[in-house]
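Problem statement: downstream parser choked on a complex file, so we are re-checking the raw output for the nicotinamide-adenine-dinucleotide run. The parser issue turned out to be on our end (a line-ending mismatch), but while we're here, posting the original submission so the record is complete.
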Amino acid sequence: MHVTNQVALITGGASGMGKACAQYLQHKGMRVVVWDKQEDTQSEADLFISCDVTSDESVEQAMKQTITELGTPRVCVNCAGIAPAKRIIGREGAMPLAAFKQVIDVNLIGTFNVMRVAAHAMSTLELEGKSQERGVIINTASIAAFEGQTGQAAYSASKGGIVAMTLPAARELAQFAIRVNTIAPGLIATPLLLNMPQEVQDNLISTMTFPKRFGKPEEFASLVGQIVENGMMNGEVIRLDGALRMQ
Ligand SMILES: NC(=O)c1ccc[n+]([C@@H]2O[C@H](COP(=O)([O-])OP(=O)(O)OC[C@H]3O[C@@H](n4cnc5c(N)ncnc54)[C@H](O)[C@@H]3O)[C@@H](O)[C@H]2O)c1
């Protein structure tokens, strides 16, 4: 897709990979709107909307405001997510069901919530000139969808759900000329990892294959850019992990 002047919507764009995507796509000439729960005071996005991806009303309202103030998005990147670790049987007994539900709610239902509203908005657009497509949706899973670790039952289930809905969503939205892809990152240097003690970070890095370092948010953003521009990328889940396979 030719991206200049098109609108890109990034959820979770106030931090980490979402923020890197917002900057990357803006440098590519896109007009960027960030939807996030937390305010980003240094945001250079064209528009910031406070939005909770778990709420249908919040997401529908954010889309209305986006269309009015910036235009209908042709690109939607879902980066909003949480990654709390919790064991099924913890020190205080069985994991509270609410803890499991919250992770599914933000990561899986939140992603679907934004995808359904973004796809509907995109379906009203004219086909974009050269690419003859209406839009691209990119969701963020994790390698924990495939190799979840102890304490990641909820997180892995939420990300596995995102992986599983990629193909049926791509098949269904094909009639509207909308592509759907998912990126499954490994360990990426965002506040989520960089706030861990140095020892834990060093241990994690020692498990890497090559390169022996955390991925950079910009590397995630550049893959997003490639997916947007490459019209053959559809219905795919792409690992971005430097060959890391979690034990
Ligand atoms: N960092 C990693 O190593 C890694 C690896 C694999 C997958 N991921 C996934 O990548 C995505 C981005 O993670 P990150 O590392 O950039 O984390 P991050 O914490 O830096 O950014 C996540 C953003 O999502 C926002 N958010 C959380 N809940 C929200 C809600 N209900 N509504 C709206 N916004 C909400 C947060 O406010 C935050 O700005 C997440 O889905 C995460 O699970 C991260």
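For whoever reads this later: The longest strand covers residues 178-185.
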